[in-house]
């Protein structure tokens, strides 16, 4: 732990020093730097008003920061924090044994905090500024340039509507919560036997080399106002992230968050190894009421996660909202039915798991499909999640402690692929944008389910491979320097005492 803290402090000091020197040497450049396109949802990073006006000064509308949209995005950001701490923390905490309750709470809360700090230092800049097809640049290190000294106001960040903006600082905060919860999802795969310092070291490496590139590839583009004329459309698209250029749809993070984290979790489960007594001793959740409470908080917070990804308080936010409600309810029912058929009884743990499965499955689709499509995705997601934590888990042979891959991986893949099907106007979906210059959708008769489905397949495949490779390297580096596992004696005693010197419950 001391080695990790020393390494982290040194890295942060170098980042801060580099930023300070850069700021002193080029304050004028930082003040006038173009605000990069950044948006989320169907795949949209925000674009700077200045960058848009440079691309086509005659056609770009004057930036208009909408107070209602800004207020909604701040609320949505709070809801995503609610998802993580306490939602995910309690959901995971209830699933482990009592002797490891506090260790899971600590891993979630401290990992979230670490990622938020790294997001401000360099994460936001590498994810949501112009660079290349795989990673962004350094224009927003330490969020420099968010305050525009020339204009005397906060830099505007584009939404999906031309001429409508929110403060870029609000968008940066919203996306920070996405990065934080993604890293926290991973810890459920190797809970109850990993060193606390190893969790933090791995999270920092994986965030830098897997989360940031995937987020950039999926969500970075130049924003709607950059598409001011047909003559510049191809150029603007060429500056976007690779997966965005492919035309893949991911409204709120099926690839970036769930598949990305789930693959890392599965790799971790293999590389950390199985828990002592796994497959021999009974390893059961110590508090299902806490797990149910966590699941309920996740469901509530997820409305900010999904509907907030519209970046505006508009019809697409409302569509994402109702789809999140409907799909989750359908998945709860599907899991319970499947469980009753499989083992004769429907369980509360199954209902809570079904809710999470539905939330994961609808995430990439929530603003990209109609309500009927969301219902089908929820039903399929519920059954797919149950399959993932029963049959698939046995086939894989990994001790994925809290079924991170079984739920987030399987349902994330299902949701991402079905987005390509139910986005079709013929199946009740809104379709995809055909021309950003005129802001017109692809004509229903011209929409191709096959083309969109293949774009989704490519996005899923690249995310799986990218996360897997980075995760293997990251876990190996941590194992060689810090070590991944606690000793067998400490594992038997419980990580609450062994790692943190305290207990969740007095005896």
TrEMBL record:
Bilayer-spanning residue ranges:
71-92, 104-122, 169-191, 198-222, 242-267, 288-305, 317-336, 348-365, 371-390, 402-422, 459-478
Task: For this UniProt record, give its keywords in alphabetical order, as a comma-separated list.
Answer: Ammonia transport, Membrane, Signal, Transmembrane, Transmembrane helix, Transport
**Per its UniProt entry, which superkingdom is the organism in?**
Bacteria
Its record classes its membrane topology as: Multi-pass membrane protein
User: Where does the protein end up?
Assistant: Cell membrane; Membrane
InterPro entries attached to this UniProt entry:
Ammonium/urea_transptr (IPR029020), Ammonium_transpt (IPR001905), Ammonium_transpt_CS (IPR018047), NH4_transpt_AmtB-like_dom (IPR024041)
**Cellular component annotations (GO), alphabetically ordered:** plasma membrane
Q: Which GO terms describe its molecular function?
A: ammonium channel activity
Q: Which residues belong to any copy of the Ammonium transporter AmtB-like domain?
A: 71-505
Residues spanning the signal sequence: 1-20
Taken from the record, one Pfam family name reads Ammonium_transp
PANTHER family in the record, alphabetically?
A: AMMONIUM TRANSPORTER MEP2
Q: Which family does it belong to?
A: Belongs to the ammonia transporter channel (TC 1.A.11.2) family.
Q: What is this protein called?
A: Ammonium transporter
